[in-house]
Amino acid sequence: xxxxxxxPGPTPVPEGVLLAMAKPLFHHRDPVFExxxxxxxxxxxxxxxxxxxxxxxxxxxxGAMEAAIVNTLRKGDTVLVIRGGKFGERWGEICEAYGxxxxxxxxxxxxxxxxxxxxxxxxxxxxxRAVLVQACETSTGVLHPIKELCEVVKKRxxxxxxxxxxxxxGAVDLPMDLWGIDVMVAGSQKALMLPPGLAFIALSEKxxxxxxxxxxxxxxxxxxxxxKNQRKNQTHFTPAISLIVGLREALRMIKEEGLQNVFRRHExxxxxxxxxxxxxxLEIFSNPPSPTLTAIKLPPEIDGQKLKRxxxxxxxxxxxxxxxxxxxxxxxxxxxxYFEPSDILQVMAALELELSKMGYPVEFGKGVxxxxxxxxxxxx
Length: 380
Prior knowledge:
Layout: E1 4-5, H1 15-21, H2 31-48, E2 54-58, H3 61-72, E3 78-83, H4 86-97, E4 101-106, H5 115-124, E5 128-134, E6 136-137, E7 142-143, H6 146-153, E8 160-164, H7 176-179, E9 183-187, E10 198-203, H8 205-211, H9 223-230, H10 241-257, H11 259-279, E11 283-284, E12 293-297, H12 304-315, E13 317-318, E14 320-321, E15 330-334, H13 341-357, H14 366-378
Helix pairs in contact: 1-10, 2-10, 11-13, 11-14, 12-13, 13-14
C-alpha cells in the first residue's frame, strides 16, 4: 500500500529534493560546500524575511529552542511562557533545566493567547526578560498573534520575544525584521520540505546584545562561535551535508514559487480543508486555526486514535492524533510544505468514508465538494 504523510512533521519531501540528497557526498571543508552553504544562507534570509544571519544547526527544532534560551538568558532570569499546548510547555521545561524562572500564561488548549494578558504580565512583573511563544502550536493547530505580541514587546528595550516558528516558517507570513521578532527558530521537517535533522535560528541586533550578557552553559549550541564560522560559509561542527544539499533544492522551489504565493497556497489549502470538515458537521478545534494543519474536534462516538489507525491501515494516510487530555478527541491533518489541492481532496474523501464506516452519518461527497468549491473560487 502506498503511504502518504499528512502528519505535522515529518511532511512529504519533493522528489527533486530526495534525488539531490542521493548524490555522492563531498567533504564539508571543501570549496564546493562553501559555495553551497553561501547560497543556502542567503536563501534562508529570504524565507525568514530578515537581513540577519540565519544559522543552520544539525539538530531537531528543539535544539534551536534550547540554543535560543542558553544564548540570550542568564541564570536566575525570569521569562514569560505562553503555555497552550505541548510545545508551549516545552519552552518552560527547557528554561527550568537551565535555572531560568518562568511565569506562565496558561491558555486553554485550542485557543490563542490574548496580547492584553501579555502586556499586563509585563507590567506586573518588570523582571521579565523574554516572552516565549509558538507561532503555531502544533499540538492544537492554533495560530498565535505574533504581530500583536511583537508590538507589545518591542516597546521595552529590556525584553525580547522568542518565537518557535517550527510549524509555521515557510507557510505563514512571519516577516522577522518588519514585525520585530527578536529570535525565530525553525526546523527542516515541516514546511521546508526536508527530512528531520536541521534546525535554524536567527537573532535581531537586540537579541545579539542579550547574548553578550548570557552566562548559561553552552558548547554545541554556542551561537557566537557558530556565527563566526558560518560567516565564512563553514560550520563550527560537522554539518548534515546531505540535508543541506536537499535544503538548497527546497529553498530554490520556494523562491521559484514566490514567498507570497506560498503563503496564499497554504491559506487556500487550509480553507478548503476547514470548509470540508465543517460541511461534514464537524468542528475545527483551533481558534484561530493555523494554515499549516487542521485539528478536527471529533464527536464522542468517534475514537480519534482508531480513526487515525484506520486512515493509515485502510488508505495509507498517516495523520496525527491528540496529545495528553486530547488523545482520542481530535485528529490533526497537516497541509504544510509539499501539498497541493489533490492532496486535500484525497484525505477528505478518505475521511468521509472512514467516518461513515465508524458509524458517523456522512453524506458522501459533501466535504469533498465544499473543498472543491474553495479551490475553484481561488483559481487553483
